[in-house]
Request: fold
Amino acid sequence: MSTESRSTGDQAMQALASLRLTMFLLICLAVVSIIGTIIPQGQLPPEYLASIGGEQGNRFKLYSLLGFFDMYHSWWFVGLLTLLTLNLLACTLKRLPHVWKLATRPEVVLSSALEQAATCRTELAIAADTDQEQLIKSITAIVGRPIITRQENELHLFVQRRPWARLAVYVVHASVILIFIGAIIGNLFGFKGFVAIPEGGTVSSFTDRAGQERKLGFELRCDQFTVSFYGAPGGGPSQMPKEFKSILTLTENGKEVPGYKHARLIVNEPLSYKGITFYQSSYGKTGSHRFMVGTTALTVSSDETAHLPDGSSMHVIEAVQDVSPFRPGKTGAAAQLDIHPANGGAAVTLVSLANHPEENKREAARYGLPVITYLGGSERPYTGLQVNKDPGVWVVWTGCLLMCVGLYAAFFLPHQRFWFRYAHGRLVIAGHTAKGQAGFRTPFDALVERLKTSLNKEETK
Amino acid sequence: MNSAALFNTVTIFYMLSTLAFIGFMASRNNTAGLAGSVLAWVGFAIHTIATGLRWKESYDIGLGHAPLSNLYESVVFFAWSIVLIFGIIDAKYRYRIIGAFVMPFALLAMTWGQLYLPTDINPLMPALQSNWLLYHVLTCFLGYAAFAVACGVSIMYLIRAKVEENSTDSAGGLMSMFPPIKVLDDLNYKAIMIGFPLLTLGIITGAAWANYAWGTYWSWDPKETWSLIVWFIYAAFLHARFTKGWVGKRAAWLSIIGFVATVFCYLGVNLLLSGLHSYGGL
Reply:
């Protein structure tokens, strides 16, 4: 390797390990992250995409090119995170050896340089004939077990507290990387998906986010799905849902799995089996409805938007097989419909009745639509479950725990060092703390005071 | 006595405390400063009782949840946290004048809550029915409050730095009441040292909860992303101390920008953007 290329390498390493780069990356990440909170992310409805088009869709093209619709997974955002990781590693490589030495091989003799740099320093005059062993005993009792060095006529004692706290900041840095690793494991070896199970129905697979059908390895049956509501102040139920509850039964090779028969699944209480976790996430109705539109017969599923012969689109909001409790005087099935007219007019909500053609005709005339007659249908509730497997999640939690412990130690547990130099009836005490210098004087003075008392007591004995 | 009346009393105490601190700044009369602190502490005590009472009232009407579940309750708790963190710093460092720059935040929060927000106790929607609610909101808002205090101290820092630049007589006039510039810098750092781990815990408890409720610990929802933005800014602040060219005024600005981002994360996201965290909206 030539000198020139080595110096380039050194320079690159130097730049990568610089705090200025850290500052730049943190601020940069903060600023660019705003984009994804303003521009909606993920799979977006085509209407929205058209609305941001700009001139000839240029703005849309630019946003797509820059990955703004999935910016947190775009090459440049991931690049910034990667650079932050490299910066972290480089800083650690550069500084850890020095800090490690500081913690594991401390300077045990008080040099004049150390004495000047110390946070606090004081001097005690003690009797010249003081027993050195007695001095060591007192210091051991009050400060801690010292490392003893004898140099010429001087006795040097060194005590340190929490040297490991120096490493706390590296624990925090490692925890960031651990969280990234956990996220990557989850992305590589886990999956997320969704499955809808109608009441009474059984599924053995689900659809993942990429739209792929995946096997569960067991079967899941929905025995029941219910929604309960809070009571209204005046009695009776309110509109405010209290609980979404699925009762599920898990079977494997046709046999019921013990403990998973009629298992309860509600929001905030997921259900796990063989590393796969199910979360209550949505609900709805599934089934089909029969209509007569003009002279055409039409069958529409509960969750589908149907196209009418005249080009309008129609969607069933709600259907009942007996309308009489809701519309006194009326009988038979009824469906509430949401219709987007073919002529581009405003959306219309209307009710179609099986037994009252005159009402249907009136509605049709009112909105300029074909006559729509609901003939009836059948539907049942379904439960929508989020399906999830994430083997990396424990790595993420370990990282989070390390981060909390590390932050606490880094901020609130200082590494403290005490040096004592004794010669000719003079005891020099120097104390140094890695942080909280302003608040160190009081405990230091208290410590010196206790030492004084202890030594005096020995003298008077 | 119901909690609503008590919360109004609290607001009045915070207003009087703020006025006393402003009077203290104008008159340099120590009695005014002491009055400011005492009023803040009494207000805080009533605030604590009122919060407990509201908690009990929610049980009385059969709902039974901590008063941390909607915008009004969070604003009131935010004010409580600010006064708590200010109280700790006041008791520990005895720079009373800081009250003039911090109590207005608490007063503003209480006034907005009492005058403009719906104060009803509502039932919890299924997603909020979890013990994580308590841990998550507690840690987040204590963190936010520490950042509010840091912001107030940073404003003082910038004022004092500006005055010292323009005149050679650094200790004269109003400035003699301000803590020395080094102390302000240190207090700013200390407040963020409290706030940053709390925000970190807040984000982690939020992630743990999201994982429990929805199966995803992180989904780049606007609320999550903004909390991370705030985290990035304060992480930058913590590193600024050791970075050439970033010590002093730039760090103070970072602290102020950090708090602006915090307020946006708290209110802006719920009021202006849409996402999973809609319970905090109006």
About this structure: The two ends of chain A are 72 Å apart (CA to CA). The CA atoms of residues 267 and 280 of chain A lie 5 Å apart. DSSP finds twelve helices and 19 strands in chain A.
